[in-house]
Specification:
Length: 83
């Protein structure tokens, strides 16, 4: 796991106190999975947003703006978390 994954895992770990056993840790696997998916969606959306220029296949040798496609893709990726 990378440092970011460890940070997310920390957010899913809780310490509980019991009179019988003292402190124990619980780990919420479902919450961790949700956080990992959200983090990956955001990483993918950022990749789309940074792809600002590309070479248009019908205009050889000219760099054209992407007409907002990358922003639309980033928005669609982020919206998958709202479902």
């Amino acid at each position: 796991m990378n440092d970011r994954d460890l940070e997310l895992a920390d957010q899913c770990t809780a310490q509980e106190f019991s009179d019988c056993t003292g402190f124990s840790e619980t780990f919420d696997k479902a919450k961790f999975a949700d956080l990992i998916r959200a983090d990956e969606r955001e990483a993918c959306a950022k990749v789309c947003e940074t792809g600002v220029d590309y070479e248009h296949p019908t205009v050889k040798g000219h760099i054209m703006e992407n007409f907002g496609h990358s922003r639309l893709l980033a928005k669609a990726i982020r919206a998958r978390g709202d479902k």
